[in-house]
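Subject: Cell wall aminitransferase structure
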Amino acid sequence: MEIRKDILPVLRPVSGVEEIASLAETLESGWWGKGPKVAKFEEEFAKMVGAKYAVAVTSATHGQDLVFKALGIRHVDVINPTISFMTTAAVPLWNDCTSNIVDVDPHTLNLDPNDVKKSLRINTEAIIAVNHAGVPAPIAEIREFFDGFILEDCAHSCYVPGAGLQGDAAVWSFQAVKTMPTGDGGMITTNSKELYEKLVPMTWLGISSTYSRTLATSSLIPGNKPGGYNWDYEVDVLGYKCYMIDLTAAIGLEQMKKLPKNLEYRRHIQSRYNNELDMKIGRPAWSETVQYYCARVDAEIRNDLINYLADKKIHTSVHFKPLHLYQIVKQNREYPVADQEWRRLISLPCHPGMTEEDISYVIYWVNQYFKESHKREKF
């Protein structure tokens, strides 16, 4: 097969005229900050995932941090998985907590309930449960022995039916290469009215939004009329500046409409890979979102395969280098599963921008790699 001239990215966002029209409408409205688009996005997202409340923020990372701060989770032990992005280790540290990193299940790469149980400390009060690559974390199993706060990290699972409803609150990501991208951004969902009412003012320095004060009818100021603008506000809590703006929400609303079709195509790519790749490629756990297609190969040839595919203009990645290997959060303990499995990981291209020819191209060159040499060790 002839080598393509352009690069096939491992991940990429896909948009169309709908996003452009929605952005144009927002630009022309004159309301670019947090306003009606954000309110609508929050309402429709909460409805989609089955949560009572949703708070749109600038990123899932800020969402996690905001939940910790709203609940006053400080100076305690927080368990999180080593196969994850740095967010899950950093957020506990931002809140002066211990980042207690544990090992993972060899198949799903999610939290290993047995290791979670062994790693519990007297002051363990929270767990961050990541749905790795969209595969649900074993929260029900962990609930059998842990009754503290569980934050479900749904950055990879937008939208898996039931995701976001297993923990006490959930965070979602709309970063540029996620299943529902907006460039960046995130959402917090919860069924707790108390948590929701704490979160809303905290997204903007403890201030009610300009949009909410524009809509409100207030008698605080003499002569204020219905639909007028109430310029006055109180600041009763220490807040932060991490609210989503309408320009971001405008993209999110259109991406939400396309999400079912995009996920269906991601699963199609997953099925083709599972059915057509050489059997020396280890298949990942089935994912409804296929945020990443985390294949596995013999550790001794992983980097060679990455370089081989790069020569064919196919970009790959590794999701993820274990958190415990970073000096800033290094732990004094063993990680037998993660240390073995991450060296075998290779994420193959998987996104709605791929054509059938692109999928075939990846399959052909992965299989060709094993055909070209009889020295490849058996998986």
